[in-house]
Write a structure and sequence with these properties.
Helix content is 67%, strand content 12%. The protein is built from eight helices and three strands, in the order H-H-H-H-H-H-H-E-E-H-E. Helix 8 (255-270) links the parallel strand 2 and strand 3 (275-285). Helix 2 (35-61) runs parallel beside helix 6 (175-203). The longest helix is centred in the first third of the chain and has 31 residues, at 2-32.
């Protein structure tokens, strides 16, 4: 519940902050015809959609397991993260077209001190949101919130480029504005691809990383009764993993003794922060049997 409530407030605060920035940016972008500010405006519109998706995705993923969803609804986070990434790619493409057109044509760029004021205000707001969101993401290991944190930091960097373009515009070098618009589009595209990959990996049931696998196997190694293992499988369940493993023990052990070993091992592995559920299957160990493929 704490994880859900924290992520919920990330979404609400993000919507409020980004809505404020969107309003002031779109006014200045229309007034100055700045491609860099237009890119910032599109980015803020995407941020609002991202915050809304964070709010909805978090609400769905917080639901308990039921008869139709035995492992809960955790993957909702990744579905909405995937949608956020697609939205970012669309915005990047639109900005790329707009900035390219502006670069090769005579624009109507008009410098205004409001460009600089809005940029500075955006950087302060976004960095504050980044620090808050990153803290929540690390506490609860939430990819959806982590995606928002990265987006806030990216916004700080992109708006810094916008600020540089505004300073150049102040001295009459207006083409820098279009160049910054192009850079912003490339940056949004890169971040969108990265987020898409992270979400796609989970939705396609990518297994635990090597570090987590090594931690699990180091626990197994503490049991001298376990002669060998195979069929190590891991499936993501939201931000956690369902682990299954086959262990081989002395066939002369009683059914109770062998299953007691499996029960202890299941409990110890499930205590790991990355693990949702562990299932251990027990087989009798035959020393001369052919080595089973992992």
């Amino acid at each position: 519940m704490e994880r859900y409530n924290s992520a919920k407030w990330v979404g609400i605060i993000g919507i409020i902050g980004n809505l404020f920035l969107l309003i002031i940016k779109i006014i200045v972008a229309v007034f100055t015809h700045s491609q860099a500010m237009l890119g910032d405006t599109l980015n803020s519109a995407g941020d609002i959609a991202s915050s809304i998706m964070t709010f909805i995705g978090n609400k769905i993923s917080s639901k308990e397991a039921d008869e139709e969803h035995n492992f809960g609804h955790g993957k909702a986070e990744y579905i909405f993260s995937l949608l956020i990434s697609v939205l970012m790619l669309i915005l990047a493409f639109e900005l790329l077209l707009s900035s390219t057109k502006s670069f090769f044509s005579v624009g109507n760029y008009t410098f205004s001190w409001y460009l600089i004021i809005v940029c500075i205000l955006t950087i302060i707001t976004k960095f504050s949101l980044y620090m808050y969101t990153r803290k929540i993401a690390r506490i609860h290991n939430n990819l959806l919130v982590e995606a928002n944190a990265k987006d806030h930091l990216n916004d700080c960097l992109l708006t810094s480029l916008n600020l540089i373009a505004a300073f150049f515009g102040m001295i009459g070098i207006t083409y820098v504005d279009s160049i910054v618009g192009l850079l912003v589009s490339f940056w949004i595209f890169f971040v969108g691809i990265s987020l898409f990959k992270d979400s796609y990996d989970v939705l396609m049931d990518k297994g635990v990383d090597t570090k987590t696998r090594d931690k699990i196997m180091s626990i197994v190694a503490k049991y001298p009764e376990i002669k060998k293992t195979n069929h190590f499988n891991s499936v993501p369940v939201g931000y956690l993993y369902h682990i299954s493993l086959t262990i081989f023990v002395d066939g002369n052990l009683s059914t109770y003794e062998s299953h007691e070993i499996a029960n202890r091992l299941e409990k110890e592995i499930t205590k790991l922060d990355e693990v949702y559920l562990t299932i251990i299957h027990v087989n009798p160990y035959v020393p001369n049997e052919r080595k089973t493929k992992r």
